[in-house]
């Protein structure tokens, strides 16, 4: 049996360090037994995810009924225009938005975000089909929705795998805002067939670069980072 | 009102007085779950253990239940779904327990080599009730192995109908005080530490001989519980000193008291209340002996049927108030959660529970090594301590959701310096 030289407690024969003070166990007569079973298992448990079957069925029924009833009303009673397409479209968008709630354990968050972008593009498509003219859907709506979706995907990736601190996430959001404003300005100029040049988005870009620069400096310098955390903790 | 079937079994149960609080504290990363482990002398046979669980659990109708929501209160409903199923043990016990997962069972049973562990959601029962279930499951398991184990000393007869008193809310029966003392205690020092990521529960258990610790406690003219309370208070005071806090606060322990010792109840459901032994370092530096004297007198003064009756009457009066009863559940949940976060959780520095000496039938003793108890994941980032003794082995287990093990270190070093030999076991990651 080994004892911790600092704490004086007897240690389990599988212990390589004292759990109380992290002092290494060095006992030439009895080195830590790596073959013996440890006092606690190594298997990590995870709480069981519960499929939300009831809420899935309820939401699907409500949204499907709304869509069908509005479609029928539009077909047989209130026959002015194709107004029911707006309601049907929004029902589809809402159902797709609720997918993570229905299948939280199985649905890949990136797929879910991509489907959200696709559903919004579809809804704008309905509006464009009902109000045709000047190609705004293809030249403006689709690219902007596409860019926003990609930016959301990047943010989700950072949130999941990269830096999770508020400061680093704020830096990512600011950079994304700068990219988005530049893209929007360039797309608008392209739509109106004007020469491509930055104007108002350059102001947003400059502000974002300054703030991002400050944030990155704070993140890189551990002293600054701890100071900010200390003073700004919630 | 519990409704009776023709087999004298209730079709649903109201939650008892304490049980109402625990579901309101439920978060994605927290459930009020505790664990009791029996360490056998031989490897556990999982299929046989499953059989034992299936045979023993119907004897405990208050545990074979699912938690449901009503409009004004939650309630427990008998659960006839398959399970609960025994499973291999995990490194992070007492993980959150979704009310809808695990076929809606609020208990989990694990096995690991020679250990059988029972985890229970606190709304079902306190440690005493869970201990009855674990001992009965173990006795049935040993019988299936061919051993003769009688039904006594904590082992219930699985063939008899449960006594209605086992299922009663004993708080309501015994709360009879004409005065209701204030509920709040004032805020206490809170241990600071680095919060561990989700799904991490650090456990450090100290195993020691009962006779040694009893001898030391006697030398201080105190009981084992008083002595351990004093050592934990001493450790927390040292930790506060080392933290160099801007403003010192009293160090307080939340100590659950088993009310069955003071009121003649055989209920298997919750029947505990909290007392808060404390030391205020702002009054001056306390020596360990002074802490122990303070704890000794506090416990002798407060832990008696009169004070405890007054305490449970306060709680019962809140629950029985017609104004509170008609408030919808979601509002109750919000208010109780806020009260817990802002008042209750802040009025103690750490929790310490002592299950006392576990009795088992004499015929079962050759197969049982010892018992362990874990108070479960703390609600806020801190450490909780649980004590249980069996024969000549006393186990003290700390469950903590912070990285630092300062309190545990000071605690066990104090025991060692008092001449008690301590063996340490932990699930903390070791150097590879």
UniProtKB/TrEMBL annotation, chain A:
<feature type="transmembrane region" description="Helical">
    <location>
        <begin position="55"/>
        <end position="77"/>
    </location>
</feature>
<feature type="transmembrane region" description="Helical">
    <location>
        <begin position="198"/>
        <end position="219"/>
    </location>
</feature>
<feature type="transmembrane region" description="Helical">
    <location>
        <begin position="83"/>
        <end position="103"/>
    </location>
</feature>
<keyword id="KW-0472">Membrane</keyword>
<keyword id="KW-1133">Transmembrane helix</keyword>
<feature type="transmembrane region" description="Helical">
    <location>
        <begin position="110"/>
        <end position="130"/>
    </location>
</feature>
<protein>
    <recommendedName>
        <fullName>Zinc ribbon domain-containing protein</fullName>
    </recommendedName>
</protein>
<dbReference type="InterPro" id="IPR046283">
    <property type="entry name" value="DUF6320"/>
</dbReference>
<dbReference type="Pfam" id="PF19845">
    <property type="entry name" value="DUF6320"/>
</dbReference>
<keyword id="KW-0812">Transmembrane</keyword>
<feature type="transmembrane region" description="Helical">
    <location>
        <begin position="136"/>
        <end position="159"/>
    </location>
</feature>
<feature type="transmembrane region" description="Helical">
    <location>
        <begin position="166"/>
        <end position="192"/>
    </location>
</feature>
Automatic annotation (TrEMBL), chain B:
<protein>
    <recommendedName>
        <fullName>Alcohol acetyltransferase</fullName>
    </recommendedName>
</protein>
